Amino acid sequence: MIPEAREVHLSRKDRKVLEACCRSPVTLQRDLKRARIVLLAADGRSTRSIAKEVGVQPRIVSLWRHRYADHGLEGLQDKPRPGKQPIYTKTTDKRILKLLDKPPPQGFARWTGPLLAEALGDVDVQYVWRFLRSHKIDLVARKSWCESNDPNFTAKAADVVGLYVAPPAKAIVLCVDEKPSIQALERAQGYLKLPNGRALTGQSHDYKRHGTTTLFAALEVATGKIIATYSKRRRRVEFLDFMNSVTAAFPNRKLHVILDNLNTHKKNEDWLKAHPNVQFHFTPTSASWLNQVEVWFSILQGQSLSGTSFTSLKQLQEHIDTYVNAYNDRAEPFVWTKKKVRQRRFKGRRITQL
């Protein structure tokens, strides 16, 4: 049953607005129909005739006649709708974050989306993934860190960094360390053409071992040049033999040698007494990365050793010697850019970082 038709009286202002709405090419169809219904109703047309002309049901015409008569132009707008209540709320988000602070189930190394959803019980795995993405939480990516428990960390770090930033006048600063167990591996190498036409360089998975060697290296901080030698082992005697060759390379010069806390580097007082021009400086415990020769070892691995093949230990050593010579020809000193030593709270402890 159609309600009794309401009379519609338009003001000049409302009529101009509705007519402009009908003329506009960007007016939505729903708004256009509502405007035409009100304009025709104001002209005295019946509900059924308006419905036939506009192409809607008579009850729709009656609805908008009543809405305009009661509320004016505002009545032609859609009323706010409550919509569907969200299934998951901030409480759900807090539950996910709280669960991430707990260890994963036994037998698993880390949490995954399905494991989180299973542990929560009432949360879909797709929502878990959306939540993790929105909070930029990566369950797979891992970063490592090292905490130093050395009570003299700041003093030792300042001593080492001070040698980098402001080395003593007329003295040589050297960074010394060993790269042990470098393997001479023989692998088949070459280019591999894939079915899609792409060519890749690579090596075979299987290999043949031809022994290992230990590389002793000293980096001169002022120039970036390297002194290197080899040994089968890395005992104290091999370390002191290398130091003898280093002191021979800088006769009558004061040497400041930066070392890590390997046991063979310490308790060498007798050797130091025999070489009064040499002074050892040790990096803090668990902070051997302060030794710049570690940076060079990384460069050596990336530029010279990775992806290579050797048929003998001698070939490996000759290969490294050739690289060292080429590196020394274009060597430049590393530049220390960090200016402040700061401390920050980490897992309830105070640790020092550079």
TrEMBL record:
<dbReference type="InterPro" id="IPR009057">
    <property type="entry name" value="Homeodomain-like_sf"/>
</dbReference>
<dbReference type="InterPro" id="IPR038717">
    <property type="entry name" value="Tc1-like_DDE_dom"/>
</dbReference>
<dbReference type="InterPro" id="IPR052702">
    <property type="entry name" value="MscS-like_channel"/>
</dbReference>
<protein>
    <submittedName>
        <fullName>Transposase</fullName>
    </submittedName>
</protein>
<dbReference type="Pfam" id="PF13565">
    <property type="entry name" value="HTH_32"/>
</dbReference>
<feature type="domain" description="Tc1-like transposase DDE">
    <location>
        <begin position="173"/>
        <end position="317"/>
    </location>
</feature>
<dbReference type="Pfam" id="PF13358">
    <property type="entry name" value="DDE_3"/>
</dbReference>
<dbReference type="InterPro" id="IPR047655">
    <property type="entry name" value="Transpos_IS630-like"/>
</dbReference>
<dbReference type="InterPro" id="IPR012337">
    <property type="entry name" value="RNaseH-like_sf"/>
</dbReference>
